Amino acid sequence: MSDAMMPSQQLWTGDYYNEGTGRSDIFDTLKEECGVFGVFGHPEAASLSYYGLHALQHRGEESAGICVTDGEQFNYHRGMGLVKEVFDRDKLSSLPGNRSIGHVRYSTSGDSRLTNAQPLIFKYRDGDLAVATNGNIVNAPQIRRELEQAGSIFQTTSDTEVIAHLIARSSKEFVEAAKDALRQLVGGFAFLLMTNNKLIVASDPHGLRPLTMGRLGDAYLFSSETCAFEVVGAEIIRDILPGELLVLDENGMREDRYAEPQRKALCAMEYIYFSRPDSELNGANLHRARKQMGQVLAQESFVDADVVTGVPDSSISAAIGYAEQTGIPYELGLIKNKYTGRTFIQPSQELREQGVKMKLSAVRGVVEGKRVVMIDDSIVRGTTSRRIVNLLREAGATEVHVRITSPPFKNPCFYGIDTPDRAELIASSKSVEEIRQEINADSLQFLTPDGLIRAVGGFNQGDFKGGLCMACFDNDYPTQTDFDGEEKFGCTC
Fold first, then answer.
1. Where are the domains of the chain?
2. Residues flagged as binding site
3. Angle, nearest 10°, between helix axes 140-149 and 161-169?
4. Catalytic (active-site) positions
5. Scanning 80, 283, 335, 432, which has its CA 20 to 30 A from the CA of 153?
6. How do residues 57-114 score in pLDDT, each as one tens digit?
7. Fold of the domain built from segment(s) 270-477
8. Which CATH architecture best describes the domain 2-262?
9. Could you tell me which residues are annotated as the binding site for Mg(2+)?
């Protein structure tokens, strides 16, 4: 067992681009959530988890961890940084076993430090317990206070630890204790719980956070996104259903549930932004879904222009769809610098306004003298949109028309996405015309809620709102969000 300890376990100082920068990031984008990957019944469980987590790296870049068991004891390793930085050949060889759970983390409300890196590992009466999750438990602070008053001592600031204490305090056997614990949680979450002889997989009753099952030979695999299955050569079986609980042990896999499914409400931002374009959600390829968003956006808000370009990387598919629908050529008008991540030292305040140039460059030969349609996935505070519009203007674009493949982002997320306070969301207080002026665009249009449902929800015919959670756009939250008179938001896994 080992943890890659940092000196004195101090919090990250924010010297690097994605190390504890939180809401002060110069790039005004929504933050990735977390990613989980599980293996049951494969002799190379640790290596499979490594490759799976590498495919999920975009969901969290601050820490990574893998816990493996051979049925008798746990071996685990966790560290701060990217998957390839935390693990090497020697580390993986020290993790024998045929069952594992792994995690990549982006911290938001929780502290960015090693003690919060997952999987979280615990000793309890029946042996070892490892927990990995993606999402947010909205009522965790309330449960935590009650547990502390009853004598529980928490080792982390992660809300994920709550479920371990609930299980440990139960007098029931592990599976029933896990069910009881899950029933007490409110929020959006995908859980992997592992003991020495069992793996439990569970999704929240609304299916807010994605979780999928795959198969590799006789082994079962579980992942936040299907792109991880492609990497390891596994076949996709199906999504984990809302309120479902799977139990895997020496007797095989048993399908069960801990709660009745509520209205299906998969996070719309998974389609719009978070998931990789080669992943599938509800049987729909993300690239295809985003192309349809661009096509619907073109139908709703056509503008005469010379070229269409997308903000890399999440908006490229939508830009292609917009171009195909309108007949306006798609061009690579913006280039992303792939190497800004962990080696990008935050600039001085004077350079912060120009910092976007370290990540994006406009292609003068493509946009100079042209009327440009710039496709992006969302506008959060508006600062980055303004910088990109100005980049295109500085490169010689005569007009810049901004089209967004989501409705206006007006409300914070309570289910695992790091969003600013409501007051900091530009769409919560400004009209579309005011936002247009703020970002210096010639025109601005957003995809309508109905357009989004038509483009994405078409894959889920018959489900309310196309089976999507659109609370960040329409303020209609699937669960209670106000506990003890205070709203909780952000990913605290």
1. 2-262, 270-477
2. 267, 314, 376-377, 413, 469, 472
3. 40
4. 34
5. 80
6. 999 989 999 999 999 899 999 999 999 999 999 999 999 999 999 999 985 444 567 8
7. Rossmann fold (3.40.50)
8. 4-Layer Sandwich (3.60)
9. 314, 376-377
